[in-house]
């Protein structure tokens, strides 16, 4: 891929037009947003947060349904915290479900999803660390997602505990991946990791119960109370407005 010069942009910008996912021979657009002082403090390096469903992460007018997380504006409003580099990974449209769900409905591992997960940890992270001034250790590397993207963020972070130390799991569609529970029990904790779990009360009783179940399984698998946060949002619905608000809560919690 040809090298491109990074210049300051107050808006999210296209970092890669089509970075390759090697094992499944697909390409993906990657968006980035840089902290406000990125070009002022040229010796400073920054934490990185990776987002699934990159189409919905930044500016709403670019999002498929006209509403986004506005993650860059949310972060800019939290000046008391060190700012982070934000990386939005566009989903694969018709491939989204196959790439995001780590198992098929028989509980077998999905080659497609594991290829995507390994791409984030092994290829994309290396690319971002090479292109931008990142703090590339696991202590400063996070991943977050919602709905199916939340399931994938959980699986990505859990499979690659050596890469990610902070995982945001918003309104996860756990009904579609029940095999994740026994996997977490079997693998257990290998590194200290912070898990932020969130669900709205208007997302359905089963969704809330599934998130509670996930919290309890993570707790029983060795993760301590200070590593786990469960936020049940009164009136919260399965939409970008909830996830925009919850990104703010996630961001503040991981900086405590």
Structure description:
The chain is α/β, with parallel strands linked by helices. It has one domain: Alpha/Beta hydrolase fold, catalytic domain (Rossmann fold, 3-Layer(aba) Sandwich). The chain is built from 7 helices and 8 strands, in the order βββαβααβαβαβαβα. An 8-stranded mixed sheet has the order 1-2-4-3-5-6-7-8, with helices on both faces. Helix 3 packs across helix 4. It starts with 12 loop residues before the first strand and ends with a helix.
Q: Which structural class should the secondary elements be placed in?
A: alpha/beta
Q: What is the CATH homologous superfamily assignment?
A: Alpha/Beta hydrolase fold, catalytic domain
Gyration radius, in Å: 17 Å
For the largest beta-sheet, the strand count, sense and barrel status come to: 8 strands, mixed
Query: How many domains comprise the coordinates?
Result: 1
Strand content: 15-25%
Number of strands: 8
CATH class: Alpha Beta
Largest beta sheet: strand ordering: 1-2-4-3-5-6-7-8
Q: What letter string, H or E per element, gives the SSE order? A: EEEHEHHEHEHEHEH
* Level-2 CATH architecture: 3-Layer(aba) Sandwich
The end-to-end distance, rounded to whole angstroms, is 38 Å
Detail the poorly predicted runs.
Answer: none
Helix share, percent: 25-40%
General form: globular
Average pLDDT over all residues? 92
What is CATH's topology name?
Rossmann fold
Question: With helices defined by DSSP (H or I, 4 residues minimum), what is the helix count?
Answer: 7
